[in-house]
Amino acid sequence: MSSYIPQYQKYFSVNQRVIVRIPLEEGGTFKEWAEVKTLREDLVDVQLSRDILPSGAELSSGTTLELRMGTRGNGYRCRAMVVATGNQKRLRLRLLGDVLLDELREYFRIDVYLPLQLTVPVRQDAERVLEEWQMRRTVRLRKKQKESQAYNGWIPDTKEEVPARAANISGGGLRVTIPEKLHDGDLVLFELTLPLHPRIVIDVVGQVITSQEIYAGTTSLHSTAFRFFHIDERDRDQIVKYITAEQLALLRHYRKGLEISPDDPAMLRFARKQVIALAVASGVCLFLIWFLSWASAYRATHPRSELERIFHKGLMEYIEKIR
Hints:
The chain is of the alpha+beta class. Helix content is 34%, strand content 36%.
């Protein structure tokens, strides 16, 4: 078992978010989010996010579970066995076998334009950043509750003027190009706006994984990858929902070809020009077909005049001479 220990330390870390697949008595599994609390060789303690699990969830000693996690932009899975249960929320697991590459839906990545704002705390203090993130979420929740009460349960789809940025996002993190030079491990406060219906604003804390300097002309920028260090799991589910919707839209686009949105004036103008050009071309073709049919019918029903016969005879004689 000791040969697997370096491998586990490579993929697991304290405070890491993982998915626990818990078997159910009636069959199947139940997905639960958890946080790694301690890691010692092949033993890992995890804290489940729920206080109460569904009935039929098997968590007795000896039960085999499956852990799924994301790191370095990829998804992985590993089997584990329940060793001890301090309570229903805290589990001690023994990791089993290899860590295998797995394409998790939560860690599918997609390139999008998203309204987002980021704030780099001057003091990189993890506790202060956590407090700031919690305060932001509390303020936003209270604002939403007030709007819900003011509109009798209906929350208006307000559109705040937040600049959109090109981003590569997944359920585990995002990559965005920024002017700031950040270092590995730096914490950043993000405000993400998901264009769902209604639109959703999410506060997360990202931790820098890597930063690469790039150039746009003479301007120095930095392509920076973040993992979600603090995020509410319900917000993570909303991100996954948005990514899934975008992927389905792309599939429909490739299957049906170019689709015209009524909200895109440029596409409407282009489509209008195409329709006019097609109508003109069709009209010209119909006119030529009619004219040729008329000319053929006219020649069949009208004999040549004396002038036409003289002209035709002269033309034939001239052709014979030049041969």
